[in-house]
Amino acid sequence: MNVVEVRDLTKSFKVRKPDKESGPIRNLLRPRWEYREALSGLSFSVAEGEIVGLLGSNGAGKSTTMKCLCGILLPTSGSVRVSGLDPFRDRAGALRELGVVFGQKTTLWWDVPVIETYRLLRRIYDVSQHDFDRVLENVTEVLGLADFLHTSVRQLSLGQRVRADLGAAFLHRPKVLFLDEPTIGLDVAAKSRLREFVKRIRDETGVTILLTTHDLRDIELLSDRIILIDKGGKLFEGTLAETIARFSPYTTVKVELSEDIHGPFEVPGALAGLESPLTAWVRFRREDLPITEVTGHLMRHYPVRDFTVEEPRIEEIVRQFYTDGLEIPVP
Ligand SMILES: Nc1ncnc2c1ncn2[C@@H]1O[C@H](COP(=O)(O)OP(=O)(O)OP(=O)(O)O)[C@@H](O)[C@H]1O
């Protein structure tokens, strides 16, 4: 079942059109307007229990999509549904179904202990004391909140604050979590802990997660599937394995030889060559040539001391998308 549905979503913003001919006073008093299209017919869906990474470079339309999904922005056209509800027209209903965490902003009250915000949220969401106690026990354990549940938010480290935010987003047991840059600004250890928590929450509760992030490790370690957007439209969507197969269909094997070879270094059906007298490489399309065939050929025909297989990484593919666009690489 799809918990998030986005269909032909467009969103335009009315913005002042700078008129260089007119002076600043005239621009202020008689502004001219134009429309900036942030989303231009975006469609995607997220199934129950999935973690999907929504990716795109700056200005691609990720935040605008998230805001439409939270009911903060009214789409210009198209539709969004969260658990079957229109988040703009039925905001209260939709908000019960979703929890939101912004890595850059907190939803917690700054001056009061974390537990006090949680108690207030219990009343806002009308969660029974029994359910609240059960979920609180669970998030405290999963997110490791016990040490700072009674500390005011202003005294927390960034990593603790984001974990407390995650707990707050989860108190009413939403079906969907929107995580907007959840690991931004965290150090390596805190990032890694937070990723573990997110994975554990999903595995233990089956919550559906839509994630935007610029951290490519978040994508690699958390997402089941990615959706790449650019200029407000979808460029590609697929599981991590599909993305790798589509955009990086080649594998490279680095070979260490135990002695010089006389003659060329060749593997049928692959590109291959010597890097130095005792090191060589083989590059081949995984779809055309099984790796066992390549390694078998190497072992039979060359004095191989060791070899390493370099599989493509999703991180590299997305990095390439950010820098060069989506071209299928040629070996
Ligand atoms: N309130 C607004 N008024 C005018 N234009 C806006 C507004 N919000 C977003 N935009 C424009 O819409 C486009 C998409 O912006 P959006 O913030 O959704 O991108 P993003 O993918 O979240 O970028 P980033 O990674 O930098 O956060 C951009 O061109 C942006 O300038």
Question: What does this protein structure show overall?
Answer:
It is globular and about 75 Å long. It is built from 11 helices and 13 strands. The chain has a 6-stranded mixed beta sheet with strand order 5-6-7-3-8-9, sandwiched between helices. A 4-stranded antiparallel beta sheet has the order 11-12-10-13, with helices on one face. It has 2 domains: 2-8 and 45-244, P-loop containing nucleotide triphosphate hydrolases (Rossmann fold), CATH 3.40.50; 250-311, Alpha-Beta Plaits. Strand 8 (225-230) and strand 9 form a beta hairpin. By secondary structure, it is α/β, with parallel strands linked by helices. Helix 5 (129-143) packs antiparallel against helix 6 (158-170) and helix 8 (216-222) crosses helix 11.
Average pLDDT level: 89
- Assess the beta-strand content as a share of residues: 25-35%
CATH class of the largest domain: Alpha Beta
- Could you say which small molecules are bound to this protein? adenosine-5'-triphosphate
Order of helices and strands: EHEEHEHEHHHEHEHEEHEEEHEH
What count of helical segments does DSSP give?
11
Gap from first CA to last CA:
40 Å
Query: Total domains, how many?
Result: 2
CATH architectural label of the largest domain: 3-Layer(aba) Sandwich
Pfam families: ABC_tran (PF00005)
GO molecular function, one term: ATP binding
Protein name: ABC-2 type transport system ATP-binding protein
Domain ABC transporter: 4-256
